[in-house]
Design goal:
Strands 3-2-1-4-5-7-10 form a seven-stranded parallel beta sheet, sandwiched between helices. The chain has a three-stranded mixed beta sheet with strand order 8-9-11. A two-stranded parallel ribbon has the order 6-12. By secondary structure, the chain is α/β, with parallel strands linked by helices. The protein is about 40% helix and about 15% strand.
């Protein structure tokens, strides 16, 4: 008998990788995906329509996941509003990340009470770890004040842990995929000296897929999911390499353009615990940057090389720390 599995947020960066892997093992799974209809979700999901059941709906609507939750064995819950959109629309982030999770749990408890829920949380729940960057699951939960995204993940975790379902929570490190993250104003919110441990969408998806084969070892536990020692880098160096790859030349922004505190990220000191169970890591920084390089077209690189002073000036004007810095500067 096939394992009945529900995947929410299937059209996101991680979700589409999970879906791809599940379909590769379609003889083992009866796959249902739940997502909000959009041009993007339709484009991502429609090629798989012969192999999966697609249910479109709004997770913030209490009844929209009723059908999707019927008789499921495993649920991988990825549906969430993430930064930068979550920062721009905090109320919507709360509705999707907290109320949506609450709706899903309620319908699972009613329609599939024996289901195992795998929930993806975030490193953001730990808050600012710039001065103490080695992070463990047992560390205090302390999102940065005003970080509605991090707080929404804390509240959603609470709902999962207090549900009647079997569950496991994976707190994801910074997810960085080739072509999935554009250089934008949000980059200025992280201090340049932040220790950064990335995970590629492919490795995160591999962990989630392999989790379906190790439920007993995961039940009732929280794990830090990170790329490990081979995926660690200081944020300043991470940006320098990406700027070169995109044709933007030297990384020469003023220091004051970047925040000095009040963000998240760090190194997962206990991340190897999940790796020991799942053996999900395949990527490292070298092949990550190689993937990014392959994702940048010759046209994009050439255009950026020509106009990089203008592009960087436009980016700089999106920096909130820079705006505050120049507003504080004394008049001459």
């Amino acid at each position: 008998m096939k394992t009945r599995i529900l995947l929410t947020g299937a059209s996101g960066n991680i979700g589409r990788e999970v879906l791809k892997t599940l379909v590769q093992h379609k003889n083992d799974f009866d796959i249902t995906v739940f997502d909000k209809f959009s041009k993007t979700s339709h484009k991502v999901l429609s090629p798989y329509q012969k192999d999966i059941s697609i249910i479109y709906g709004d997770i913030t609507n209490p009844t929209d996941t009723v059908v999707a939750t019927q008789n499921q064995d495993i649920v991988i819950h990825l549906a969430a509003l993430i930064p930068p959109t979550a920062y721009d629309h905090p109320e919507l982030a709360y509705k999707i990340n907290v109320e949506g999770t609450k709706n899903l749990i309620h319908n699972l408890e009613t329609n599939a009470p024996e289901a195992f829920l795998i929930y993806t949380s975030s490193v953001a729940v730990y808050g600012d770890r710039l001065k103490n960057h080695h992070i463990r699951v047992t560390d205090p939960i302390n999102p940065v004040e005003g970080d509605t995204y991090g707080q929404s993940k804390v509240e959603a975790e609470h709902l999962v842990k207090n549900s009647q379902l079997k569950w496991s929570i994976f707190r994801l490190s910074a997810i960085m995929g080739a072509g999935n993250h554009k250089i934008s104003g949000i980059m200025f919110l992280m201090p340049l000296e932040t220790p950064l441990e990335i995970t590629t969408p492919e490795d995160a998806a591999n962990a989630l897929f392999k989790a379906t084969r190790h439920l007993d070892a995961l039940q009732g536990r929280i794990f830090n999911l990170g790329g490990g020692a081979e995926n660690r880098i200081i944020y300043r160096d991470f940006l320098k390499q990406n700027f070169k790859i995109y044709g933007l030349g030297a990384f020469n922004f003023p220091e004051g353009a970047f925040a000095s505190k009040d963000y998240h990220c760090g190194y997962y000191a206990d991340g190897d615990e999940l790796e020991a169970i799942l053996r999900f890591r395949n990527d490292n920084l070298s092949n990550y940057f190689e993937k990014v390089k392959k994702s940048v077209s010759w046209f994009t690189y050439s255009l950026a090389s020509i106009f990089n002073p203008i592009i960087k000036r436009v980016l700089l004007l999106k920096s909130e720390p820079y705006k505050k810095m120049i507003n504080r500067a004394p008049a001459v």
